[in-house]
UniProtKB/TrEMBL annotation:
This is rRNA methyltransferase 1, mitochondrial. It holds the Pfam family SpoU_sub_bind. One of its GO terms (molecular function) is RNA binding. Residues 83-233 form the tRNA/rRNA methyltransferase SpoU type domain. The lineage of its organism: Eukaryota, Metazoa, Chordata, Craniata, Vertebrata. PANTHER family: RRNA METHYLTRANSFERASE 1, MITOCHONDRIAL.
């Protein structure tokens, strides 16, 4: 952390900004009081609530640091591990919302493809409501190889799809039918194209969210972060029911 910028003003946010200043000072960080116009420029016109922090960028972490201990014999059913894998998520607001949901719902790891994906930007951090700052995100440039290796280790890899008719060679089930009985990786695809064909073929099954009505053409899918939240909650609620 380098410098904290606070808006020069009175008003309802002033006591909280004063608390921020005390925390920054306790960490040895300089605090500068600037105008709202200067904060607008720093945040490139996006909302800032009177506070900007200059900090080092957060890179994707290496998958070498993400590995769990190997699963022992008969252990897979008792360790309900859940990883979320993101392929080609390009919108920073969506990425931030995905990280926020994953953190809230108890996902153990998030892994993102490094190619054709949004980097970990300040917009992502803000959209994640700060989850990105406390929840590591791992990156890989060989997504299919990573999924293949995890399958060989005994993990169940499941993909997600909004239009079941678009999937070939992989069975599609409703998310309510999925049973979480081994470590699982849920793979989410890009906003426009979904999962690539190569990634689909690494999945044992595809999960779909059944719609609540007959859908009008062109309005036949959910926002990717909303869909991921529904799917993750559907899976994670099983863990709570089992009392683990």
């Amino acid at each position: 952390l380098f410098r904290l910028f606070l808006k020069q003003s009175s008003g309802p946010g002033r006591p909280l900004r004063g608390e921020f200043a005390l925390q920054a000072a306790a960490r040895g960080g300089p605090v500068l009081h600037v105008t709202g116009r200067e904060l607008d420029a720093m945040s490139r016109g996006r909302p800032h609530q009177g506070v900007c922090l200059e900090a080092a960028p957060l890179p994707f972490r290496s998958l070498r640091d993400a590995e769990e201990p190997p699963l022992g014999a008969g252990e897979s059913g008792s360790r309900q591990l859940l990883w979320l894998v993101l392929e080609h998520i390009q919108d920073p607001m969506n990425l931030g919302a995905l990280l926020r949901s994953a953190y809230f719902l108890g996902v153990d790891r998030v892994v993102a493809s490094l190619s054709n994906s949004c980097p970990l930007t300040p917009i992502v951090s803000k959209a994640s409501a700060g989850a990105m700052e406390v929840f590591d995100v791992y990156g890989t440039d060989d997504l299919q190889g990573f999924l293949k290796a995890k399958s060989a280790e005994g993990w169940e890899v499941v993909g997600t799809v909004s239009k079941p008719r678009d999937v070939e060679d992989v069975p599609v089930i409703s998310c309510s039918e999925f049973r979480w009985d081994k470590p699982v990786i849920v793979v989410i695809g890009s906003e426009g194209e979904g999962l690539s064909q190569e990634t689909q073929l690494q999945c044992r099954r595809m999960l779909a969210i059944p719609p609540g009505r007959a859908l009008h053409p062109g309005i036949d899918s959910l926002n990717v972060s909303v869909a991921a939240g529904i799917l993750l909650h559907s899976i994670c609620s099983q863990k709570r029911r089992h009392g683990d």
